[in-house]
Design brief:
This protein has 372 residues and is α/β, with parallel strands linked by helices. The chain contains 14 helices and 14 strands. The strands form 2 sheets. Strands 3-4-2-1-5-6-7-8 form an 8-stranded mixed beta sheet, sandwiched between helices. It has a 6-stranded parallel beta sheet with strand order 11-10-9-12-13-14, with helices on both faces.
């Protein structure tokens, strides 16, 4: 079986979709009778093994993302590859290219709904866009043979728009890379904090939906005895005294070191579509303090962390205090076990392959159930 992935959600160095696709590619390469091709935007047209790029303009202030404007070259590339199934990973031009190529090849096309487009646009342009964008999403995804969503909250959103054939297909994490064994006492020395201080971490872009102002206000309320280190890009310039930052994306190994060396991840985002950093923290053996909203609430099950009220610095700070008042080390161990049992790539990717096998007639039917 030849599987072709196409998406614009690809940057040179980071991104949750890229992490997913690289893990998927590595795992599929070990499966007998499977061929995988990845088609993504780049600066120039190029082909490096199973990785194909076509040129597309970069998005200003877009953190390395590129936006294809015309679909025909992408359709022709897909038709030339002649896959048995196509997986489209974004809701823009390349999704329509995948559908057009699928019709020409008469092969199934799967849509993976990674991002909540109406919410993302509405946050920046205003809620007046929601009606139009919801109609667009419904019209697009009704064309796919199957739609995969990384969380229950995303699947429910699609179903509320009248989209059918939606399955929950969670993402995963590498439990070898994100592992408690990477804990490094030198991290505290680098930050200038002592062993008695609770070290918290957050990793990600400083985008509006991460609610970093709420997180920083919570740190002000927590005061001495707690220190937060932010890792990512576009992070706030002004920080409380008990907050530090690494204002650029670090490599995966360095991120694994930061997570394993911290005492807990704190995440104030209330509209996450999945929350890969939450899984990476749990895999690193640390508990999570999140909020009771979005996909993070699906990942932080009882015993692996605590959930605060959304958009409440007081509740977030109170949850952090409660975490360290009792049992936080055991929560970290339970978080690690939860990932090993349910979210390691070797657990998640066979489910994904099962969808492809069913659609191409090469496997048993998958019941319409939730995998989260």
């Amino acid at each position: 079986m030849h599987i072709a992935d196409i998406t614009m959600f690809w940057t040179p160095s980071s991104g949750g979709v890229r992490t997913f696709l690289e893990a998927k590619d590595a795992w599929l390469a070990k499966q007998p009778g499977i061929r995988h091709t990845l088609l993504v935007p780049g600066a120039i047209a190029a082909c490096a093994g199973a990785h194909v790029t076509l040129p597309a303009p970069s998005i200003p202030f877009g953190h390395g993302y590129r936006f294809p404007l015309r679909r025909q070259a992408w359709v022709e590339q897909l038709v030339g590859l002649a896959p048995d199934i196509i997986a489209a990973g974004d809701p823009y031009v390349l999704a329509w290219a995948a559908l057009q190529a699928g019709r020409q090849l008469q092969v199934p096309v799967v849509g993976f709904y990674h991002s909540d487009l109406p919410r993302l646009v509405g946050t920046r342009a205003g809620q007046w866009t929601n009606r139009w964008l919801n109609a667009y999403i419904a019209r697009l995804y009704r064309h796919f043979d199957r739609i995969l969503a990384p969380s229950q909250v995303m699947a429910d959103k699609l179903r509320s728009l009248g989209v059918e054939r939606v399955f929950v297909q969670p993402l995963g994490v590498d439990p070898v890379l994100f592992n408690p064994c990477h804990r490094d006492p030198a991290v505290r020395s680098e930050l200038g904090i002592d062993d008695a201080t609770r070290l918290l971490v957050f990793a990600g872009r400083g985008s509006r939906e991460k609610n970093l102002p709420v997180l920083l206000q919570a740190m002000t309320l927590l005061g001495k005895g707690f220190h937060l280190h932010l890792v990512g890009s576009c992070l706030p310039a002004r920080l409380p005294d008990n907050v530090s930052k690494t204002d650029y994306f670090v490599g995966r190994q360095q991120l694994a070191r930061w997570l394993a060396s911290s005492d807990a991840l704190v995440h104030a985002g209330n509209r996450e579509t999945f929350g890969l950093i939450v899984l990476e923290a749990m895999s690193s053996g640390i508990p999570v303090v999140g909020v009771q909203a979005g996909a993070v609430a699906e990942l932080v099950v009882p015993g692996t962390g605590l959930l605060a009220r959304p958009l409440s610095a007081e509740s977030l700070a109170g949850s952090v205090r409660a975490l360290f008042a009792d049992g936080w080390r055991e929560m970290g161990r339970q978080a690690r076990r939860q990932v090993e049992q349910h979210y390691a790539w070797q657990q998640v990717l066979p489910q994904l392959l099962g969808h492809y096998q069913e659609l191409t007639g090469q496997g048993l039917a998958i019941p319409e159930a939730h995998f989260g």
